[in-house]
Amino acid sequence: MDIDPQPSQNAQLKRKARPVSGSLKKKTKVQHRTLDTLPWQSIQRPLDTGLDGDEGVLELEEVDDVEIVYEDTENGRVLKFNVSREHGPNVKPKDDQTASYLASVKFDSKPICTFFHRIQRSHCTPFPGALLPSWRPFKLHPHLLQVLHSKNFKSPTPIQSNSLPKAIAGKDIVGVAETGSGKTLAYGLPILQHILTSPRPVLSTESGSSKRQLRALVITPTRELALQVADHLNIFARAIADAAVKREEGDEPDLSAPSKKKKSNGKPSDNEAGSGPPLVSIAAIVGGMSAQKQRRLLDRGIEVMIATPGRLWDVLAEDEDLARQVSALDFLVLDEADRMIETGHFAELDNILRLTIRQSEEDQIEPEHEGGSSGDEGDNDQSGNAGTVAGATPSIAGTNQENGMRTYVFSATLSKDLQQNLKKRRRPKVGKKAKQKPASTLDDLVLRLDFRDPEPEIIDLSPQGGVVSSLKESKIECLVTDKDVYLYYFLLRYPGRTLVFLSSIDGIRRLAPLMELLGLPAYPLHSQLEQRQRLKNLDRFKQTPNAVLLATDIAARGLDIPSVDHVIHYQIPRTADVFVHRSGRTARAMREGFSLLMIAPDERRTVKLLFRSLDRNEDEVLEMSVELALLDKLKERIRVARQIDAQQHKVKKENHDRKWMKEAADAMEIELDSDFMSASEDEGRPTKHVQKKASGKTAALKAELKALLAQPLVAKGVSTSYVTSGSRPIAADFVAGDCE
Ligand SMILES: Nc1ncnc2c1ncn2[C@@H]1O[C@H](COP(=O)(O)OP(=O)(O)OP(=O)(O)O)[C@@H](O)[C@H]1O
């Protein structure tokens, strides 16, 4: 049998690699093979391994002529891949595995959009509305209803049910709702609905191939949030593709069956993430991402882009085509808009937003390339309804004038003043003056948005006092120097997934090794860590029971980490908004949660102001009771752990200083003092004697700590001898009234 890439003929879903230029594109000898004789390799697809589950594997599809095939097996879904052509003599496979893919098979090479358009045109059976009666009024696309059903989202959350009718009616929306209340889908569903139900424009590239056009841009303040939103929407996109393929193959999913979750290694079921390529192309463009991967994504075409302002502006500065697409968006979303003002990317955001503003006639700029691209419209429009952009891209100004971009601004904290101002707002005029005057506050920024809707809908469901009702709060008043021991006490006494917020990176650097010495699974998260490390630590935090995340406020907004039991404000935030967002990492989606404020004497005033600005009475937050006998034992452990840390730090610092001094002296051709040299060896390391002494001291301290850690800690109300075994998350105690 010759290989045929049509999904309808193979039970598997195949994704065609896009053609790429460069050395790999040499004329090759083609030889057909049968499917069974191909050198298939099976690998486990790294589902939900972090915030970018496809990292690595899906990149194979970007390689020239590599074919990706998803296949359901007894052991779960596996991904197979193969290379379709022999490459030229100059192209050497990177390793053995790559070499084994070099089978000489020629596949049909229709552009990727052919596949998507074909699915889009496919017959779509209505979803039985009786299964999801609460969603029925919104007339969502059957694919979306099916995903909501499979995720067991029986009814919309309040922000969703309030905003969906307005969004679907084409209104612009400013939505304010408590943390964890489902704002991502409040804007995500209308975007997906629109993409699924309206013509899909494709762009022609210079090489004559086609790519999908940017329809929606979601701007978020942090990389983690961008990746999370992309992940969240991609689960929908994959499941939609899966459903579409099943329908196309006549294998209608049994919608009445409850969704079954096949668990393997604690990971989500295959169904949950869908087994096919996305029907809607959704991707994050964020800092820390490899430039090559980013380029590949952009070349392929992204329909829903989730981006951070800094990286997006860098890309836009070099990609005129993308800038043109941004000026012709269908949707612009600012998620956690207020936070963007604080992240220092204000100018970039302002510049990006300016691209989305309609130009007045006198400001119109002649486009450099009238008509956009040179591709053949007919080739790209397989569905008969595309081609509105290909070969006829209107000018930036023209596009802006004509498109009906919808603007959504969402956050858990948007001031009432801003909402009032929005009602009275005047449309910004784009001209030279406006360009010279960058916005400087959130009010300015939001007022500079060019809402096409003369009366944007303001939906304010923010709770009284900013925090959700399922959140229980408590406080500890203590000296700054005692915070470590109180934190340690809490973590031992109330095990659970705990997010500890600190205001400084230095604080995290100090606390992380201390926690490690005390045997707690604590992971740092701050902006000075490499992106890969940040994601890795987030992932470990998600996967490890009773893990602790020591984070700065980069983790305060939007992150939807499942089952965070406790949030600890180790240092009190300066603003009420940050306080609300930090606390909002727990008690999400109607679950219970607990937040603890650790207040040092010099933070009293901040707390007072914070509660005043939230219009709350601080007395409603109860002081947490602490067993002092237990605290004393823990103080001893902390004391020794600190000594070990100081000792290790001292040795490291001495080594570093010595090495630096030696290198500097060598560079300047200066001979160092004999005293200095006698204390070091050639490599700038301390003498064996000094090393031995230092490590001996550390070893003694470690032994002391080990003995202390082995001593049982008996806590009141805990049945077992060690407090770490058998405690319930504190939120449960509070709810049961067990904590005074
Ligand atoms: N209709 C629904 N039913 C049940 N769960 C839902 C529903 N919609 C969303 N969720 C879940 O609720 C959780 C919180 O959603 P999301 O992250 O969108 O909240 P948010 O309002 O954006 O929070 P934050 O303000 O902290 O960013 C997610 O895990 C999401 O999958």
Task: Set out the fold topology.
Blueprint: E1 13-15, E2 41-44, E3 66-73, E4 76-83, H1 96-101, H2 112-121, H3 142-150, H4 158-168, E5 173-177, H5 183-197, E6 202-204, E7 210-212, E8 216-219, H6 223-248, H7 270-273, E9 282-285, H8 291-300, E10 304-307, H9 309-318, H10 320-326, E11 331-335, H11 337-342, H12 346-355, H13 377-380, H14 396-402, E12 406-411, H15 416-424, H16 432-436, H17 442-448, E13 457-461, E14 471-477, H18 483-493, E15 498-501, H19 505-517, E16 522-525, H20 531-543, E17 548-551, E18 566-569, H21 576-583, E19 593-599, H22 604-613, E20 622-623, H23 628-667, H24 674-678, H25 688-710, H26 730-736
Parallel strand pairs: 5-12, 5-13, 8-10, 8-11, 9-10, 11-12, 14-19, 14-20, 15-17, 15-18, 16-17, 18-19
Antiparallel strand pairs: 1-3, 2-4, 3-4, 6-7
Helix pairs in contact: 3-6, 4-5, 5-6, 9-10, 9-12, 18-23, 23-25
This protein binds adenosine-5'-triphosphate.
In short:
This protein is of the alpha/beta class.
